[in-house]
Batch of 2 targets.
Target 1
Amino acid sequence: MVLLLPLLLLQGPTWCTAAQRCPRICVCDNSRQRVACRHQNVTEVPDTIPELTQRLDLQGNMLKVIPPAAFQALPHLTHLDLRRCQVELVAEGAFRGLGRLLLLNLASNRLSTLPQEALDGLGSLQRLELEGNLLEELRPGTFGALGALATLNLAHNALVYLPAMVFQGLLQVHWLQLSHNALSVLAPEALAGLPALRRLSLHHNELQALPGPALSQAQGLARLQLGHNPLTYVGEEDGLVLPSLRELLLDHGALQALGPRAFAHCPRLRTLDLRGNQWSAWLLGTWRGCVALRWLYLSGNRITQVSPGALGPAQELEKLHLDRNQLREVPTRALEGLPALVELQLSGNPLRALHDGAFQPVARSLQLLFLNGSSLEQVSPGAFAGLGPGLQSLHLQENQLQALPALPALTGLGLIDLSGNPFRCDCQLLPLHRWVPLSWTPSAETFTAP
Ligand SMILES: *[C@@H]1O[C@H](CO)[C@@H](O)[C@H](O)[C@H]1NC(C)=O
Ligand SMILES: *[C@@H]1O[C@H](CO)[C@@H](O)[C@H](O)[C@H]1NC(C)=O
């Protein structure tokens, strides 16, 4: 206000009336800096919006077309919300004069194309929402004027192809959202000219092969979401070279195989999500090069066995999820070389029995162990050998256990779930009954009468 005072004095009464009157169909705050004219079916930007308005919310109207310089009379705008306004066309220069705009929301409209100069004049814009439109193609140069943009959301459109240099000029973009489109091809230079890109969302598209060359253009990428694409194979030849990548999400695809050294050039990778694929064969050395891996999710694949040495050495691996696969036994030897493993998920495998020393290689570090829903009928007396006070929770529910040995070494257990087992209430269960803390009373489902 201090800055505006001289302006105010100069403009005198004209400015005062304009600033004080709130258009009939709008709601304004006391200072007239926030104006909301939502769901009023207006077909044009109302011409009586106070000139000093900073935040203008027009969502849910029927603008259809944004003509050139539509907001020229509102040079102080920082936030402009045009969601759900049935916009089909943004004319060239539509936002001219909005040099202070930080956020432009054009989500949920009907844009099928963006003219070359539609976004000109938005030199301060930090966030552009174009989610939920009908965009089928983007032309190089479309975003060239958005030198300050940090987030670009193009999710839920109809994009099938990204041409080379399409994002040129977006020198500050951190997060590019391209999920829920129909992308099947990315030109090798499609992601060139995005030096600040850290996060790229490409999930829910039609990619059948990893666009390695395009992705490798984004050398600063830390998080890459590629889930829900019909990818069948990833190998070193796909050329994924991402020295800064920390999180790679390849879940819910159609992966049947991973080449040896598929992730050989991602030395900082901490999280690798491969859930819900169709992976069955385990190749030795797949993880070589993933020296920083901490969380590895392989749930819901078709893995039948994990060969010794396939996982390790992984000095920092903390979480290993192998639940809902086809493992017929605990892959004990494959757990060697994982000195930091804290959480092991093996539930939903047809394990049937736990043999002696099944968890010995990771017994020192393990805290959470999931063996529920694994058709377990038999647990050898030494099955949990090596595990001690470090183990905090043990899930054995939904199995076929009739008896369980006492586990006196597990003094640190905060949770043991034994529900959904047909335990026989006879002498065989006595050691367990003595061992389980007094406070624990079996529920009706836990025990079924012999
Ligand atoms: C906008 O148009 C719809 C459909 O014609 C109507 O139901 C609604 O009452 C209108 N809203 C206003 C504020 O005029
Ligand atoms: C195992 O138990 C955990 C915790 O209750 C649960 O989240 C998970 O879905 C269960 N897994 C299976 C395969 O039933």
Note: Residues 40-41 surround 2-acetamido-2-deoxy-beta-D-glucopyranose (ligand 1) (CB under 6 Å).
Target 2
Amino acid sequence: MGVYVYMNSFLISKYKDVEPYVPGEQPRDKKYIKLNTNESPYPPSEAVLKAVEDSGRSLQLYPDPACRDLRAALAGSLGLEPGNILPTNGSDEVLSLSFMAYAHDEKPAYYANVTYGFYDVLSGLFNVKAKHFALESDFTIDINRYCGLDRGLIVIANPNAPTGIAIGVDEIEKICKESPRCVVLIDEAYVEFGAESCVGLVKKYPNLIVSRTYSKSMSLAGARLGYAIANEERIRELETLKYALNPYSVNRTALAAGVAAVKDIEYYRNNCKLVAETRGRTTEKLKELGFELTDSKTNFVFCRHPGVPASELSEKLREAGILVRHFTGERTNDWLRISIGTPENMLALTDTLKEILNGGKS
Ligand SMILES: *Cc1c(COP(=O)(O)O)cnc(C)c1O
């Protein structure tokens, strides 16, 4: 008879301290106006819906691991070669492959102290030394900090999240040029809502990787599709790791949707324009209610009210059926990140906030 030793954890020790990403909630208790995860308020185009339906007929087959059709479509739309593109399972996969490929303890990852929370998660997971550069008091980036760095991975979300603030292509070029031994990863998850893309620099700077996603501007958060854009050598490096980890990470339905969406780019551009217009009107209304806002170029606003704590606002909005995102943490605790929904959604938001601020009277 053997002796049973009860094990509390089977996890190997290097993963014991991993802190997972905490996604915005997707509740099921009732129907909310969801302004907490930066999804598009608009559905995919008709052509995408049709492609998704058609893809179902061949789901018994593996997807093309090389993603050739999607690469060709994206390369055509960006004026690049298919070898400059790597489709991935959401742009989060571009981020994880990049951390894996280009950062470690003697090659740090450099990023802002207020930015996308996933960067810290990946540093923890891959044992990467993270160097956090503090944003200025108004949440802008001092790009000089990223110049003259020796080795490692520079990661900048442009526009940044959750602040919404963008930097210019000339500034990104300066970083690529002045830190030539670092890989510079520019996360353009929100670029289509009003910032300037640095994709044009890819031909000139072999150390630049741009990550893009279909989750926000292309109404496909549920399909999990993103891509890296870079010099062919960088793409080959990332692709080698992708094939080592999960060659079929992009499924057949996502590939079909992705190709169809590229062909329908006018529909999506128009949606982004609508979102930017709604953001402008929402910003004005929030200012009238006494909120302070950053200059957002994204599909969300980042705001605080001098009179009421963000935690209280977020709780009261929730009770009224509206979800927004409140990040605890020293620099963000006073602030709310509110996704831009339809004009009707945003009217409901500002009306409800008005009531909350008036102590229940509208
Ligand atoms: C949403 C988001 C992503 C990742 O999106 P995917 O859904 O994985 O494509 C990446 N970076 C930032 C800054 C984001 O906000």
Note: The first strand starts at residue 33 and ends at 35.
